[in-house]
Sequence to fold (464 residues):
Amino acid sequence: MQGAMADIDYRNISYWFDSLDEEVTAAPSSLRPDEVDVVIVGAGFTGLWTAYYLHQQAPELDIAVFEQETVGFGASGRNGGWCLGAIVGIAGLIGREKSREQGLAFQRLAFETVDEVGRVTAEEGIDCDFAKGGTLRVATTPFHAKRLERHLEFQRSLGFGEDDYRWLPAAAARERINTSNNHGALWNAHCAALHPAKLARGIGRVLRGRGVRIYECTRVRSLEPGRIETDAGTVRARWVVRATEGYTRTLRGEERTLLPLYSMVVATEPLPAKVWDELGLANRETFGDERRIVIYGQRTADGRLVFGGRAGYYFGSRLLTTFSPDDSQIRRVERSLVELFPILETYEITHRWGGLMGVARNWRAGVGFDRRTGMGWAGGYVGEGVAASNLAARTLVDLMLEQDTQLTAMPWINVELPKWEREPLRWLGVKAIEWAGDRADARESATGQPDNFWGGMFDRVVRR
Ligand SMILES: Cc1cc2nc3c(=O)[nH]c(=O)nc-3n(C[C@H](O)[C@H](O)[C@H](O)COP(=O)(O)OP(=O)(O)OC[C@H]3O[C@@H](n4cnc5c(N)ncnc54)[C@H](O)[C@@H]3O)c2cc1C
Fold:
């Protein structure tokens, strides 16, 4: 079925949408309410989990979710399917002595969130191919191996044990993942591979079954205390939640709140058993490596390799929803895949797509709620939102219901969001960061030596 935006066939959104075993349809509702208790804008993981936990804790509330297209249309139905116990910003907190304790508590909550997603999906009968095999960070050069070993030592000094992280020397690492260059790998237990569209659609189904209304094909133009303006008219509400991530700039007044950054993904055809015998990933471990312009992969439940990477920004925060298979960034992702696994050269790439991440100016994820105005938001996860959105949603719900919990003491709450620069400064800044990352990656892979100059510049902004 065609989407609300002209010419979008929802099956083309991603391999994940194409492999759903449901008909994906969406249509505007003529029964839009004038007033509800809570309005949530955006039916991705953030909006859906917020509705889920809010309904669970306060079933008397009348909750309405507004979505411009269909449930899971944004990053939530397009990502790499890593449910990873990490949140952008935690490493920086742990790295500084004065915020270390708080960072560690936050890290433990992020780890636990992977299990929370597993628990809820099992309990609610949401079959999203959840498999907690951990994640492998491969060293493709000897100095990457040294860097990862140093990282592991640091984690050990913080109290994380073998159940959290393990170093796999080259031979053992190759058994787990047979990349062309493999000098060892760091295994992190706190990651599950999942089918993100099945997860998003599954939460949507549970919500509808409980009477939470989801209004699809309804674009929201602006949010204000006590009301939202949609294409079809005004809806009043006591609480208004923004869960629009990479699309936030479409809302009036929010043009420079979150920067839309693209990531591109491909999926192979189902690979024969003999290829998997060669490649590994027997426990469906997700994987990446030490380059700065990140790559990420997962073995899907139906035996494909889904692989993504690259991050790109378009001048003026331009929003794209569909991508040409010839897109140069998608081609780069394909080349990286075959460099890592030359055996895949002869296998077909059946799906190519892209999606939008949301990036805050301080490069941190956050949760906000203003009791006075009743306005809330969560997002800015960059590429780590699958698990983080669940923790953000639970946090937001605790804030809304005025519950002082461990979650409401975390350092990502109500942190002021600086605005992004105006163009062309914004574009120049982001391109400079991207360029520094690319340059560091190229030099490190060519020389086998750390590139502290360009790499250091990139790290100062992105890996804080
Ligand atoms: C290609 C890609 C790969 C990624 N891989 C991973 C990964 O492997 N692991 C990980 O943890 N994270 C990953 N991420 C990030 C992760 O997918 C996101 O952080 C997460 O899905 C964000 O969820 P969300 O609900 O906040 O945003 P979204 O899923 O983007 O949802 C926002 C929703 O709001 C709707 N919306 C926006 N504006 C309006 C409006 N004005 N009116 C009505 N509706 C509106 C949109 O249509 C959309 O459905 C990836 C992201 C991308 C793009």
Observations:
- The longest strand covers residues 349-360.
- The mean pLDDT is 94.
- Residues 421-464 form one domain.
- Residues 202 and 436 are 40 Å apart (CA to CA).
